[in-house]
Amino acid sequence: MEKQWQTINPDPETVRSLSRQVQCSPLIARLLAIRGIQSKVQATRFLHPSLSDLTPPMELAGMGGAVLRIHRALAAGEKILVFGDYDADGITATAALVGFLKTCGARVSYYIPHRIADGYGLGADFINKRAIPAGVSLIITADCGSSSSEAVSLARQAGIHTIVTDHHPVAGIPRAAVAVINPTRPECHANLAHLAGVGVAFYLIIALRAHLRKTGFWKNRREPNLKHLCDLVAVGTIADVAPLIGENRVLTTAGLRQIDQGARPGIAALMGMSGSPDTPTDAEAIAYRLAPRLNAAGRLVHARMACELLLTGSRQKADGLARALCRLNRRRQSMEQDLLETILKRLPRSPGQMAQPVLVLNGERWHEGILGIVASRLARRFNRPTVTISTRNGVGKGSARSIDGIDLSAVLERCADLLDRFGGHPMAAGLSLPTANITAFRSRLETVVGQMTADLGAVPTLSIDAHVPLETITPELMNSLARLEPFGQGNPYPLFMDTGVRVHASKTVGDRHCQMVLEDGSGNGGRHPAIQFNVAGVPSGVDRFKKIAYRPQWNYWNGRKSLQLIVEATDPGS
Fold first, then answer.
1. Which of 120, 190, 368, 487 lies at a C-alpha separation of 20 to 30 Å from 537?
2. pTM of the model as a whole
3. What's the Cα-to-Cα distance from 174 to each of 167, 491, 563, 566, rounded to whole Å?
4. pLDDT tens per residue, range 162-209
């Protein structure tokens, strides 16, 4: 879909002030201002993220009661069970909690539900059939549990206490829980709602370690260095598309350094098998290489495989599990492409649906594990929220993905009477409903989304950070831009624009990508390798673009590092 180009214009005085106070170039100052940074103190914290700047964990509601209960369980040798979600956020949160509790000498095990057989979240069946027979006395949830009031109450009646760690917004929390640590709770004023599930779990670990220190717990055992868990926090945070701001920025920066050290066999093996082993790890590598492979286990078979990969200390076991996850991911990609093509062939037969502000698509026995990624691709392609639903035995289970400006949580809340259950984030959610309700749900959703924004069908905006001529893209500039990393949700990679750009050469690679050599309009700035993804190629007869939008990046290949432009959009002009 064509986009409207719009250059962001921060306050000029703020840019001049930042450039002077931080002693950085006007371009870096401009990029800082665009990210909402207005003072030297804010800029220093942004450019030099430090673990010492983290919000104290005891500011999270419920934290005090949680650490006291876990300490009691450790002292009494109680059986503790960590119950996690099956996505990468839940898997990393589970691994972090289990790994830390093991260093405390805890009698700890974990359970991650099967996506299709068990469904999402802590349920009554799990309490009755697994927790009670196993003699568990304390359950700690990871990235779930806030909507599990029935199961938590049932556990309490059976003498099992529950501590919830979660970040999903819900209307009401399980009152029978010992503690609910969820920064999105109205009662929580810690200003940490941006944390992913693994971030919340890590905050519990920080608080627990500090509490145990005060009690002398570490006198006879080695106190763990929590930096060693930051790799898990970085992976889960990026995989869950949490904004890389504040604490997430601090923890992700520390985690990326840990990953580059290769200390965790599972992550090292998976990174090595999913790309160039010589490439420094950044948020993009986690989002596009590591996270899909970790998620593939929970989508197609069982997430326990991915959790075991993260917990193992054996490089041999890690290699075997990493290979299996890579095979699953290839299978997932094939299934995803097949379903996407099926849907795209169907859409022209329903022109009325394409005129609506939201897409609701359903099919018999679509694989539930790939619904979310297909919905995401359709939402991006058609610039509208998308819900994909798989039906079987009278029940529909779906995944929803949104676009900027449409809060899925608010949308689904207004459809609650038609749904059996739902939950998630403003940009991504899951749901289930009777098959008989799908038509009414589609109609309600179209009305609600239509009311939420009258501009939904408008051309999306391409936000340009600055006009930067190609001739100024140098290694020195790249080093300056690196100070703004890690890039991702909430801190996007800067997008630049240049005009009058010549196309020196171009060719199609990989069937659907256009590889080019570009030079600035004067012809004096040298030639720049560039690639634009998912385009047919340079339009016939075009040897110069009126303007291009691009992101300069380092390209690593065969041990060599070179500059490359990632072209986001082009305007051939008339």
1. 487
2. 0.92
3. 14, 34, 52, 47
4. 999 999 988 789 999 999 999 999 999 999 999 999 999 999 999 999
